[in-house]
Amino acid sequence: MHPDNPRLRNVQIDIGKDARNYVSGQQRVTMVPLTIRRKQNRKVMTPPPGETSVLNSGGEDVSMIRTLGKAFYWQKLLDQGEFATIRDLATAMKLEAGWVAEVLRMTTLAPDIIEAILEGQQPRHLNLQTLRGRHEQLPRDWQGQRKLFGFSI
């Protein structure tokens, strides 16, 4: 509660409780359990596990969308025979072959995962670092990808 500002006097943060709402006097009070964490230089609100809300989505990730576009463009160049190998493509683009291979791996994502990324509806934890920096291989089967990234199966 905030004693100086009458509008914020009824604001209350309860940690670890279930969401609920009730009427108090003339006001409807809604309590939603959230965790507030610092991520890079901003605060991020995270709902409890298992809850679905707009806070669970990562929002539009422009760099991931651009990288996805590069991946499909490069795959098209390889499919059309413009370049025989990833190494040839990387050399022509003046990029590291390993990075090009990591980016090209994004073309194997399930169509609904790609669509979610383009619409900004991917889970918050699904980002470029998650896709490219994986120690284990990205599952080839789409059901495995959905399970790994937390999409409904």
How would you characterize the overall build of this protein?
- The chain is an alpha+beta fold and 153 residues long.
- It has two domains: 6-50, no CATH class; 62-149, no CATH class.
- The chain is 37% helix and 13% strand.
- It is built from six helices and four strands; from the N terminus they run ββββαααααα.
- The strands form two sheets. Strands 1-2 form a two-stranded antiparallel sheet. A two-stranded antiparallel sheet has the order 3-4.
- A hairpin with a 2-residue loop joins β1 and β2 (27-31).
- The radius of gyration is 22 Å and the shape is elongated.
Strand order, main sheet: write it out. Answer: 1-2
Task: Tell me the Rg in angstroms.
Answer: 22 Å
Main sheet attributes: strand count, strand direction, barrel closure: 2 strands, antiparallel
Number of helices: 6
Number of separate strands: 4
What value does the average pLDDT take? 76
The computed structural class is alpha+beta
**What is the number of independent domains?**
2
- In whole angstroms, the N-to-C terminal distance is 42 Å
SSE succession: EEEEHHHHHH
In terms of per-residue confidence, which ranges show pLDDT below 50 for 5 or more consecutive residues? 51-56
